[in-house]
Amino acid sequence: MAAPKISVTLPCYNCGETVGRALDSILAQTCGDFEVVAVDDGSTDHTASVLAEYVRRDGRVRTFSIEHGGVVAAANAAIEAARGRYIARMDADDEMLPERLAAQAGLLDENPGLGLVGCRVRFGGCRESCAGYAHYVDWTNTLLTPEAISLNRFVEFPVPNPSILYRRECVETHGLYRDGDFPEDYELLLRWLEAGVAMAKVDEELLVWNDPPSRLSRNHPRYDVDAFYRVKSEYLARWLGANNPHHPVVHILGSGRTTRKRADLLLDHDIEFAAYHDVDPRKIGHVVNGVPVLDRDRIPQPGAGFCLPYVASRGAREEIAEFLEARGFVLGLDYLPAA
């Protein structure tokens, strides 16, 4: 039996109420040259029986069970069992729109320099009660090109994990998801970007990204904000070592307690702070652990120092970018957002 063009990997755990909708959306794809590799991660509900029914109904669905080991173990087991030359990720509580696989595979077909592609996603939660997630979706949907994805990788996760589709060679060369006290999907993306994998997105909404209260990223400590900043800091420090002409010295924009807590993680990776820069007159003039807090207008001239904006309040990143670029700073050359 010939291998399919695309393998859709689907880790499943106690998702009997949602996995049927996910599978229906996959089987309704306009591109039919695919298989589904669904791994039941030791579910204790009726997930296994739902999967068995879909296997009986459609020969493109393959499934097997493993002892419960978590999403990383299940996702990696599905990847290792995949036979396609392109591998897609799907979550059991999301839904594909009909053109997803065709459009994403087409983007890889047409662009041999790309290793991984995503798409714009449609937020499937309540925008009022889940405003943070909705804002994140809106932001990530603006990042479509390899340059935009690369230069914004340290702000947040630039390509939502359930939307990715990549060449088999990427995982063979750069490795599977890693397990640890960090978000495995973000770590994989940072690792592959660091290795030079070019990533882009189809400029269409091709996935409904649901946000139920039970979603793992809402409940597991590996996905909390501090975990994101820990793994981000490790990769950002290495990026700075390769790209900051003033390495290891940087200027931090922002000096609030939260900003310092997150930026200070870089100190563990031998990054040095010339100063914190702020607009709040109550903070300017202080010295924090030997680092002065200076007025933002005292940032160095472009080419004389590298700036890391670490202010995460809504709208602040955009305002800081406008401020820096009005002074001649170039994104990726003179500054890089990190919050």
UniProtKB/TrEMBL annotation:
GO molecular function: hexosyltransferase activity
InterPro entries according to UniProt: Glyco_trans_2-like, Nucleotide-diphossugar_trans
4Fe-4S in keyword set: no
Key words, A-Z: Transferase
Domain Glycosyltransferase 2-like, chain residue ranges per copy: 7-171
Record has Cell inner membrane as a keyword: no
Source domain of life: Bacteria
Pfam families (alphabetical): Glycos_transf_2
Entry protein name: Glycosyltransferase
